[in-house]
Amino acid sequence: MTNEATLTEPARAESAMGLAEAVLPVLAEHAAAADETAAFPVESVAALRASGLLGLLVPQAHGGLSGGPADLAEVAQVLAGGCLSTAMIWAMHCQQVDALVRFAPPGLSGRLLPRIAAGELLLASITTEPTGGGVLTSASSPLGEAGERLRLDRLAPIVTGGEHADGFLVTMRDSAGATDNRVTLVYADREQVGIETTSGWNPMGMRGTHSVGMAVRGDLPVEQVVGQRGAYREIAVDSMIPLAHIGWSACWLGAARSALSEVVALSRSRRRPSSLDPGSELFTERLARARIDLELVSAYLDKVVTEVGVLRAAGRSLDNPATQIHLNSLKVAAAELTFSAVDRLVQLTGLATGYLRGSAIPLERHFRDLRSASLNFANDRLLKAIGSLSVLDRSVRLV
Question: Are 255 and 205 contained in the same domain?
Answer without folding.
Answer: no
